[in-house]
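Continuing the batch. This is chain 6 of the set; chains 1 through 5 are on the previous pages. Same settings as before, nothing changed between runs. Recording input and output for traceability.
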Amino acid sequence: MNKIVKYVVLDILKNKIVVAYMAVLLLISIGVFNLEDNASKGVLSLLNIILIFVPLVSIIFSTIYVYNSAEFIELLVSQPIRRTNLWMSIFGGLALSLVVAFFVGCGLPVLLYAPNGTGLIMALMGIFISVIFTAIALLASVLTRDKAKGIGVSILLWFYFTLIFDSIILFLLFRFMDYPLEKPMIAFSFLNPVDLARILILLKLDISALMGATSAVFRDFFGGTTGMMIALLSLSAWIAVPLWLSVRKFKTKDL
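Output for chain 6:
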């Protein structure tokens, strides 16, 4: 299992797309912090990079890698290796590689220029987002044998989590604006890892105005240790559930 993870990591880290991804993140991060006179402003400027660009690269690259490695996976399946261990090894290699690329490209600059709680939560959310969308990509790729359909499903999932979900929430807020929806908004936030990461970062940045009328409720719930732990457990579940579903599907899939 460790040998497969090592092979996947070394193979991906030599990939030009991953190297370019890491270089782009590094250039943007250093550029943003050098242009801003305040570290918090730099972190805020990087917010959309973390919440839009990182999940896009993670889900698309992981999906394409699985499809391009189909012959390699079929070869390993023919060996005396449990399918669960094989799939977990591929996930581990993909997730570790994308986390390394993100951390070198964005995490390190954030921690260097903003060595405080804000920088730490920003780097941590980026790592979570990378791993979560890798798990979602593996689920999307194992559901269909057709590469085009698999990539299409991945793009639609990214589009849903980054744009469509927020549109649905805004529609509900306007449609039921006469009702107290502050507390239901907390429940809705757990249905989207991107929104959950955004809330945790904005709370650390102490910019309540960007969170609208629900800011006080979010601050009361997520501002404490218990709320933070629940949020981190929820993000962990966003890794575990798609991964578990993909493992179940892969174990019975006819290759």
